[in-house]
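hiii, so i know i said id send this last week but things got crazy w the move. better late than never?? heres the sequnce for the chain we talked about at the cafe, plus the structure i predicted for it. fair warning i was half asleep when i ran it
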Amino acid sequence: MRWSVERLWLVAALVVLWEVGTRAAGSSDFPPPSQIVKGLYDLWFSGPVSRGFLTERAVDDFSTSLSNLFVGWILAGLAGVLLGVLVGRSAVLNELLDPVMQFARAIPPATLLPFFIMVFQLGATMQIVTIAFGVVWPVLLNTTDGVRSVERLYLETARVFNVSATRRMTTIILPAAAPKIFAGLRVSLSFALILMVLAELTGSTAGLGARIINAQRDFEMTQLWAGIVMLGVLGCLFNGLFALLEKRLLAWHSGIRRLTT
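okay and structure toks below
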């Protein structure tokens, strides 16, 4: 609790410094936080009570951006875990696919945007594919590593007691690999937010990325900074919620670590 209060004081101090510094500079390119907060309110949070204070623009932007983000992230998560388990459990598949995976993950997703636009055209499908391709690698590689690092003693003991392959997978392999899988999902969620914006900067008419690029073209710097701050808030919110979920689902793992240290 004390540490949280200290961090809040630090954030408040930084905001005050930001306010004072930008007002002293007097640059239209760097509006003070008070103007940015007003821009956030005007853009997205000045709607009626019946809609949770969300404006029509907020409904359009958030629904478009967040639906693409979570669809792409969930698809990438499912594909990454499934393929990671297969590669991690098979030495042959690992030898064959590891060079391909290392090559593919090294390709910046931004460089494939023209290809995705050509194949899928502009729209939600292109944006979802861009997000999924960019965020699948942390999940895939972490899952592969987690599955391969399961204690051999556990697996041999299960074989001795004639535990079926399905039960070994669900009660030994996946639980043992879960911490690394969740770490990959957490990292990929941050990447998904970045790629969501990147995909919306090209030919999109709705979403937070489109709102930011339109503000830049119209020289609406307050709206531009409001969009940037909104993305930061969403990133912190997603990270906090995922950390809470991870803590609850992996509570057993934290208990084991405390007992073994």
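btw The chain has a mean pLDDT of 87. thought thatd interest u
miss u guys!!
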